[in-house]
Design a protein that fits this description.
425 residues, mainly alpha, 22 helices, globular, DctM, membrane, cell inner membrane, transmembrane
């Protein structure tokens, strides 16, 4: 009965258009009332306790790093470097988008920020070159969702906190799946764009490539610092966020000299606004998470899915399908915060590696960022590229298929994730 109360109150509040954070708080109040333990002080205490976590400090600093990258010229130089490498081949600007998406993903970890940067720079170039604009916009959206899978990732940080899983392990385990997503995008782009008659860019000379690499070397060195520092224990993922923000500030302000005081003010304001939204959502979700545990809902769900416990792959397929459907109406962070703590006891009971599950969980929710009707990244790309939402949805369909194929492969063959993860640990 309490499961029905939880799901009914959550989805009814979302259905009437209540913001997700307030819907979660309302669901918590309904659960407390149903359990006969309503106390506003508990809600306030759990919100403060939930948000007062050292690990969550990584969120504002990674968001700040992403804003500094775009304002400080790092993103633009990365795109230019990719253009000199692969821009001259047929469909080259699409491959530029994939290459740039991977490099930028290893710096910021924000799907919306990366998609916006890619769309702002590359969609006008692809439009002028004669590419199918909706398909190009769809590629920008699909490229953006690689960001939360390749470390560093805000999604991994939120999942690690909500589900009590090693964030360092999630970071290391996400490298191979993220690269597989990028390769699948490149292959699908090569397939759908093979018949397009477009102007190809002139092939860059060796000196031009060397010059572009020299201009972008400061930006390209950033993921090396972050991943090497985490891998060799020089700093934690939370400290890596601070390093990323300071490094982006130094490069944009001192090396590239594109950060002005006015742009710096806008950067900090934008990062603060986004941080406040995310942190309030996290605090509200952790109240609901605490009540879910108090109501013993995870154990009740384990009882419902007990027939699947002995078949981990079938269980994972069912969970992935659930997440893809839920993600069509919920954003990434709420999905993680609501379903991560609920599903984790099942995963442990089925003896599935929690880090592997966390990566599959994040990949599933990331794919949902480019599926209608919500499709947060779709809306971002549509607004930035000035392409109607319906056309962006049409353009992104082949790339959704390619990402689902990668996801299915990882569910069928967990060793693809676990083998390199065990080597990196």
């Amino acid at each position: 009965m309490i499961i029905l109360v939880f799901l009914g109150s959550l989805f009814s509040t979302l259905a009437i258009g209540l913001p997700v954070a307030f819907a979660l708080l309302t669901t918590g109040i309904v659960l407390m009332t149903f359990m006969g333990m309503f106390n506003p002080q508990i809600i306030a205490q759990q919100m403060i306790t939930g948000a007062n976590t050292f690990t969550l400090l990584a969120i504002p600093f990674f968001l700040l790093a992403g804003e500094l990258m775009n304002a400080g010229g790092l993103s633009r130089r990365i795109v230019h470097f990719a253009v000199t490498c692969v821009g001259h081949i047929r469909g080259g600007l699409g491959f530029v988008a994939v290459m740039a998406a991977v490099i930028m993903a290893s710096m910021s970890g924000s799907a919306a920020a990366d998609s916006a940067a890619l769309a702002a720079i590359l969609v006008p170039m692809m439009r002028d070159a004669g590419y199918n604009v909706p398909r190009a916009a769809g590629l920008m959206a699909a490229g953006g969702i690689v960001a939360p899978v390749i470390p560093p990732s805000l999604a991994y940080i939120i999942f690690g906190v909500a589900a009590n899983v090693s964030i360092t392990g999630l970071f290391l385990g996400g490298i191979v799946p993220g690269l597989m997503m990028a390769v699948s995008l490149a292959l699908m782009w090569g397939f759908v764009a093979r018949k397009e008659k477009v102007e190809t860019l002139p092939k860059s000379s060796g000196s031009e490539r060397f010059k572009a690499a020299g201009a972008a070397v400061w930006a390209l060195f950033m993921p090396v610092i972050i991943l090497a520092g985490i891998r060799f224990g020089i700093f934690t993922p939370t400290e890596a966020a601070v390093v990323a923000a300071v490094y982006a500030l130094f490069v944009g302000g001192v090396v590239y000299r594109e950060l002005t005081w006015a742009s710096l003010y806008r950067v900090f304001v934008n990062a603060a606004k986004t941080t406040s939204i995310v942190m309030f959502l996290v605090a509200a979700a952790l109240v609901t998470s605490w009540l879910i545990t108090s109501a013993n809902i995870p154990n009740q769900l384990i009882g419902l899915v007990e027939p699947f416990i002995d078949n981990p792959r079938l269980l994972m397929f069912c969970i992935v399908l659930l997440l893809l459907v839920v993600g069509m109406v919920l954003d990434l962070a709420p999905t993680i915060l609501i379903f991560g703590p609920v599903l984790m006891p099942m995963i442990r009971a089925a003896e599935i590696d929690p880090i592997y599950f966390g990566i599959i969980f994040v990949m599933s929710t990331c794919i949902s960022l480019i599926t209608p009707p919500v499709g947060v990244v779709l809306n971002v790309v549509s607004g930035v590229s000035r392409v109607p939402m319906g056309k962006v949805v049409y353009g992104v369909l082949p790339f959704i298929l390619s990402q689902i194929i990668v996801l299915a492969l990882l569910v069928m063959f967990p060793e693809i994730v676990l083998t390199p993860l065990n080597w990196l640990r």
